[in-house]
Design goal:
alpha+beta, single chain, five-stranded mixed beta sheet, globular
Length: 149
């Protein structure tokens, strides 16, 4: 888990810091909040709470060395907070909204596990946890690197 946003948290000997290379990145919008929810303090925003829940769950998970948990300031999915994105080099990228900080962490990690088992990151709808079937906002195909001669 690499911390990429300045915060009061320490970079707790992340797998990346120890030399392991995560094969996937789980981006979590820490600024996500429903309309009318106060902006401050940041720690009370549902997106920040989702990040904290995922951070805690990932620490205990065998996925810990394979996924970099990356907080981001905004995924521009504001009408559907709390939002996450899942990406890997050469693989499909997925966007999900409507996650619940106190309920979604296990489902998200289950989806990440399925994603990592797929060679190209393609997640068939019926292989995703139910919460992530209904909350998908989009997917982006992998960028193909073509050699020019």
């Amino acid at each position: 888990m690499t911390e990429t946003v300045a915060s009061n948290e320490s970079n707790e000997r992340s797998p990346t810091a120890r030399g392991a290379r995560p094969s996937s990145v789980l981006h979590v919008c820490i600024s996500c909040r429903p309309s009318g929810h106060p902006r401050e303090p940041r720690e009370d925003r549902p997106g920040f709470k989702l990040y904290q829940a995922l951070r805690k769950a990932l620490r205990k998970s065998p996925l810990n060395r394979r996924v970099e948990l990356r907080p981001v300031e905004c995924l521009s999915l504001c009408p559907r907070p709390c939002s996450i994105a899942l990406s890997s080099p050469g693989a499909w990228t997925y966007l999900f909204g409507d996650q619940r900080p106190s309920e979604s962490a296990a489902d998200i990690l289950q989806c990440v596990s399925t994603y990592l088992r797929s060679e190209d990151g393609f997640l068939p709808r019926d292989e995703r946890p139910a919460r992530l079937r209904a909350s998908i906002l989009g997917r982006v195909p992998p960028i193909e690197h073509r050699r020019t001669t």
